[in-house]
Amino acid sequence: MNKIPIDNIQTLHDIIDHINIGITVLDTHNQVIFWNRFMVKHSGISSSDLIGRNLFDVFSYLPRQWLELKLKSVRLIKNYSFVSWTQKAYLFRFNHTRMISGESIEYMPQDCTFIPVNNSGTGETYVCIAIHDMTDVVASQQKIIEINDINKTLEHMTNHDGLTSIYNREYVEKQIEYEFSKAKRYGTLFSLILFDIDKFKNVNDTFGHLAGDEVLKNTAATIKAQLRSSDVFGRYGGEEFMLLLPETNIENTTFLSQRIRNSIERMSTFYGNTEIKITISLGVVQFRPDIKDYLQILHEADIALYHSKQNGRNAVTQYKITGCALLDCSLASPKA
Amino acid sequence: MTNIQYSDDQYEMLREVINLAMGHAGKNLATILNAFVDLSVPEIQIIEAANIAEKVLKESVFDESERVNLFRQNFNSMSFMDGEAIVIFNNETRQKFAQILGVSGQMNSMEEVDFMLELTNLMVGACMNSISEQMFDQKMSFSPPELLSENSVLRNIAYETFKRRNLKWEYTLLSKITFVLKDRSFKSDLLIFISEKAIQAVNKSLNKMLADYE
Amino acid sequence: MPLSVLLVDDSKFVRKGVSKALTSILSGQDLVFSEACNGNEALGLLYANSYDLVFLDLTMPEKTGYEVLTALKEKGIKSNIIVFTADIQPEAERIVRSLGAVGYMEKQSNFNKEALMKVLQEINLL
């Protein structure tokens, strides 16, 4: 490949002028000293009409107080500053280019970058504002959000996870909190199992997301069949699950953990004609009076689970203050 | 896995480096807020990933039960000095922005978040550039700051953010700097997490600086 | 008479740096150094002894430099105090001078000998 020599200012100037990003350069008094074609095209104001004029005089709708503060801080710390469309939908009121399915978007959504530019002649700091058109990103995100919103509302109403039909995170957390206060007040006991599917990303990448969903459903169903009615079983996040066991000591919990681990190892999920095998890693913890709240007990379960992952996965780890203990994989019988 | 522990001398040298960096950030903050910023001694420690939530809760200027807003920003330089910064503002501070800045009326929620992003960028930028210039004689690059969480109880968000499995490393060099306005209307914690591999680079640089003092 | 100097800073490297620089600038003088690593220690020494020159950090554990200056002012103790700090807000200099500091120096990554000479000239020690 040949290198293209960019040795004269005019070439650079042309590139910046034609690039599909809005470029505006302001001097220390916020007067416009550069305004590229992107800005001309979308604002309808030509470069020659604008240069030398104060930006705020021409665009009186700009949020002056806010923008002046921004410009001030860029000049002060001589560092980049950013504004995402997620924070502020747009800076300039430009029409967006989407004719179809853009009806809910008022103006072109913009990501803005503020770049300090040193004028080596005067030692002053100018600010370059780069505007990125985010219309397409916003349009596609809106669709996803709409679908997610419907699912979220449904889940919220039913306490259940839409995909696996077991409890959702909010409900399980509420139940842990309840068990926690009960244990603190009445000296009752409970244990917690946190687990996730090993290398679940591989399942999705290899067989696709629909196959991944089947695996999640099958995992939930396989485990649910082994539980007591008082146990609270929920999906905690993507491929994470949580099992709250009231009135259960650590010995019985670890026994159950091994049984679950073993059952998932033997489980087969069929997606079409493809057989998918998975394993899970688990972390178990029992309530102790010195644990401050449910956040801390979750934290300990998370550390134990991490320990299982670090030690080859498909394993159960019990949290101990003195250090996590990886448990023997053979099925021990629980104490009577 | 890094098993590096810094010596007392190294920590003392590093504290002075961060002290200077804090001074720069404090000056910028004072200029933007048009007020006097109270600085305190920065807290620095190499810490295991599993203990971060507790450490943050213990060292924070905020109470565990306070509702806070968290922002994050990545930084990196060519000298293997990389990591992530988290800036915490409490809701109380957030509600006083308009008053602090002397702007008329209330700020809306978007403007408040944007202002916190701006302050995050300012504090992290000033601090990290100063550290990098002192230790490696070069400037840093930064990702745009992001909102991590709004209006969350500090204890909840600390355990959520520093979940062990979310952290892909064993150790970090954690520095905590607190900025408070004299009239207490503004409070903020800046947490700097320097990556495991950067701990080694910092170690080398500190040794060089120590040698200069001999 | 040797010149007695108190160095107050929580970093021993800063104390070392200042004493080194002073020794080289005031090479004709006999210097006696005392050190304190926090505000409380500094106050203890300043109540008990008098010093010809004091270098005082602002951000320190126990008591800050501001608190040290305030306490001295309240007791009416006057001393040649030069504040040497990373707190570079313009307001910081105004405050410490109003609390009785005779000099103010910004900490920089490399010790600024010229700034120190300038401050020493201001208080007629050079």
Explained architecture:
The complex is a heterotrimer of chains A (336), B (214) and C (126). With 336 residues, chain A is an alpha+beta fold. Chain A has eleven helices and 13 strands. In chain A, helix 8 (200-207) crosses helix 9. Chain A starts with 8 loop residues before the first helix and ends in a 10-residue tail after the last strand. Mean pLDDT of chain A is 87; it is low at 331-336. Chain B has 214 residues and is an alpha+beta fold. Chain B has seven helices and eight strands; from the N terminus they run αββαββαααββαββα. In chain B, strands 1, 2, 3, 4, 5, 6, 7 and 8 form an eight-stranded antiparallel beta sheet that branches. In chain B, strand 3 (67-76) and strand 4 (82-90) form a beta hairpin. The mean pLDDT of chain C is 93. The relative contact order of chain C is 0.18. In chain C, strands 2-1-3-4-5 form a five-stranded parallel beta sheet, sandwiched between helices. Chain C has five helices and five strands, in the order E-H-E-H-E-H-E-H-E-H. Helices cover 43% and strands 20% of the residues of chain C. Chain C is globular. The chains are: A alpha+beta (336), B alpha+beta (214), C alpha/beta (126). The A-B interface holds A 63, 65-66, 69-70, 72-73, 76-77, 79-84, 87-88, 113, 196, 293, 295-296, 298-299, 302-303, 305-306, 309 and B 28, 31-32, 50, 53, 101, 103, 110-111, 113-115, 117-118, 121-122, 125-126, 129, 142, 144-145, 147, 155-156, 159, 163-165.
Name a few traits of the molecule.
heterotrimer; A: 336 residues; alpha+beta; six-stranded mixed sheet; 11 helices; 41% helix; elongated; C: 126 residues; alpha/beta; five-stranded parallel sheet; 5 helices; 43% helix; globular
The dominant shape of chain B is globular
| Largest Cβ-defined interface | A-B, 29 and 29 residues
Rg of chain B (CA only): 17 Å
Residue-averaged pLDDT of chain A, rounded? 87
Provide a count of the helices of chain A.
11
| Quantity of strands of chain B, as a count | 8
Strand content of chain B: 25-35%
Produce the secondary structure layout:
The complex is a heterotrimer of chains A (336), B (214) and C (126).
Chain A: H1 9-18, E1 22-26, E2 32-35, H2 37-43, H3 47-50, H4 55-58, H5 64-77, E3 81-83, E4 110-118, E5 125-133, H6 135-158, H7 169-186, E6 190-197, H8 200-207, H9 209-224, E7 232-237, E8 240-246, H10 250-266, E9 269-271, E10 274-276, E11 280-286, H11 294-310, E12 316-318, E13 325-326
Parallel strand pairs in A: 11-12
Antiparallel strand pairs in A: 1-2, 1-5, 3-4, 4-5, 6-8, 6-11, 7-8, 9-10, 12-13
Helix pairs in contact in A: 8-9
Chain B: H1 8-33, E1 37-39, E2 43-48, H2 52-59, E3 67-76, E4 82-90, H3 91-95, H4 97-101, H5 109-136, E5 141-142, E6 146-153, H6 154-161, E7 171-181, E8 187-194, H7 196-213
Antiparallel strand pairs in B: 1-7, 2-7, 3-4, 3-5, 3-6, 4-8, 7-8
Chain C: E1 3-8, H1 12-25, E2 31-36, H2 39-48, E3 53-56, H3 65-75, E4 81-85, H4 90-98, E5 103-106, H5 113-122
